[in-house]
Design a protein that fits this description.
Number of strands: 9
Bound molecules: adenosine-5'-diphosphate, magnesium ion
Number of helices: 20
Order of helices and strands: HHEEHEHEHEHEHHEHEHEHHHHHHHHHH
Helix content: 40-55%
Distance between the termini: 38 Å
Largest sheet: 5 strands, parallel
Shape: globular
Mean pLDDT: 85
Radius of gyration: 23 Å
Strand content: 5-15%
Low-confidence stretches: 86-128
Oligomer: single chain
């Protein structure tokens, strides 16, 4: 197992930026306690639970691929075990290990859950027994502020059998602002009040995959039974994924109607307002607006501080007020990034066996943070993308559809949207007069590739961001 992991690490090194590799992967070692012959599970030691969760959502697929390329059987699974001894690559050389100065309590011992890659499983209706809810996303650890108050209140109501419910509840907002968290919280609250409630949480992508699988395997009746009759609360995440998928939309339309007429609660999330989902059937769009459409905006400074503090407490990270303020001031875009920054800092401090003070935070984040506010413009991003792909700015703004030009164009649109938050219509203008729906589908496409950890795209985006100091 050690050799296999070493080979996989080499493989991974070529796929990630040095910073990500050093922060997240190189400290991992193989946990051999409990290893059994013929057991195709690789257990990796991690310093805390957040680290495990982070690896699972961001790197598990990549790790599994690297293992396969390095000779692991296809059935290999990866588990994480939380252990204090998981800082060896740095500390092992300096013996004895210096005591960690962090005055925080150590993370509570926990049984690391088994974490097989969801994509490694068949996308059949039996792939997820149970509700599919993420246990980490509850109302208790959701910080409420002006930016998400309406969506939060509506979600609480949707989970309640006593309050007035809005059906369907449609929550929309940009990436990393808490939609998936809220919609999971609805499920947990519902189950907490009534353990027999049949809650089904599913991403639109998974719904689509299961639907296709059911069609191909002649299991459509079971599929329909599960979604139309087998649930009391349907939580459908990232509905924008259905854009352009006519047959799945049709299926969802009937699912929606069955549930709605049986007075079953439906909660849907999307990264845009219903009407702005491109290539979505009008009749679905209009149904989305029958209940309540609630938005989530990027959090204000005070909410960002509160989120950081809550997160730090949850993860047993000691976070001084001035450091929280500093982080909240510089990371504005979304909560996922805010969390990621905090955790990265905590891991760095742990590796360097230092406390997180303001100086350390500034130093550690220097390369990651923007030079100054709004320093980067659409044009900066366009130029950096052109440099990276060696194409001309004029081509980027042209209507040429050749992949050598159209792909960099999509990457540039994605970066502008994500990093500058420029509106879709404005981006259309800035890219030589494209329609806003073209920009939207480009952003979605690149976002999908990044989520599936497509190495070419991930590397390109990381390299360009590094260059721009984003
Ligand atoms: P989205 O689905 O909108 O892209 P997520 O729900 O995945 O965003 O949120 C990204 C991360 O930020 C999650 O880890 C989530 O727990 C956290 N998060 C978002 N909003 C809040 C909040 N208001 N309070 C606490 N954590 C939050
Ligand atoms: Mg989400």
């Amino acid at each position: 197992m050690d050799d296999l992991w070493e080979r996989a690490l080499q493989e991974l090194k070529g796929k990630l930026s040095a910073e990500n590799f050093d922060t997240w992967l190189s400290p991992l070692t193989v946990d051999r306690s409990g290893e059994r012959e013929a057991d195709a599970t690789l257990t990796l030691k991690v310093p805390n639970k957040f680290y495990a969760d982070w690896l699972q959502t961001h790197y598990l697929d990549l790790v599994l691929n690297a293992l396969r390329v390095s000779g692991a059987p296809d059935s290999m699974r990866v588990d994480f075990s939380v252990s204090d001894a998981a800082r060896p690559r740095v500390n092992a050389r300096s013996e004895p290990p210096p005591p960690a100065p962090r005055p925080s309590t150590p993370p509570p011992p926990m049984a690391a859950p088994s974490m097989a890659s969801p994509s490694a499983q068949p996308a059949g209706p039996y792939a997820t027994p149970g509700s599919g809810l993420n246990p980490r996303y509850t109302f208790d650890n959701f910080v409420v502020g002006p930016s998400n108050q309406l969506a939060h209140a509506a979600a609480v109501a949707a989970a309640s059998s006593r309050q007035k419910r809005y059906n369907p509840l449609f929550i929309y907002g940009g990436v990393g602002l808490g939609k998936t968290h809220l919609v999971n919280a609805v499920g947990h609250r519902g189950l907490g009040d009534n353990p027999n409630l049949r809650v089904l949480f599913v991403s639109a992508e998974r719904f689509t995959n299961e639907f296709i699988w059911a069609l191909q395997n002649h299991r459509i009746n079971e599929f329909r039974e599960r979604y139309r009759n087998g649930c009391d609360v349907l939580l459908m995440d990232d509905i924008q994924f259905l854009a352009g998928r006519e047959q799945t939309q049709e299926e969802f339309f009937h699912t929606f109607n069955s549930l709605y007429h049986a007075d079953r609660q439906i909660v849907v999330t999307s990264d845009v307002y219903p009407q702005q989902i491109p290539e979505m059937e009008e009749r679905l769009i209009s149904r989305f607006q029958w209940g309540l459409v609630a938005d989530i905006q990027a959090p204000e400074l005070d909410t960002r501080i509160a989120i950081l503090k809550a997160k730090a407490q949850q993860e047993h990270i000691t976070l001084a007020d001035d450091v929280a303020l500093f982080l909240a001031q510089v990371v504005k875009s979304n909560v996922r990034e805010l969390e990621g920054t905090l955790l990265r800092l905590a891991v760095k401090a742990e590796l360097a066996t230092r406390a997180i003070d303001l100086e350390f935070a500034k130093e550690a984040l220097r390369g990651v943070l923007p030079k100054s506010e709004n320093a980067t413009t659409v044009e900066d991003i366009q130029r950096a993308v052109c440099d990276y792909y060696s194409i001309r700015l004029a081509d980027l703004k042209s209507h040429r559809r050749h992949r050598a030009v159209s792909f960099p164009r999509m990457v540039a649109m994605y970066l502008c949207r994500q990093r500058l938050g420029t509106s879709f219509p404005e981006l259309g203008d800035r890219f030589g007069g494209k329609d806003h729906t073209t920009v939207m589908s480009a952003v979605r496409k690149i976002d999908g590739l990044i989520r599936s950890e497509d190495p070419a795209v991930v590397n390109a985006v990381e390299a360009i961001e590094r260059k721009l100091n984003l």
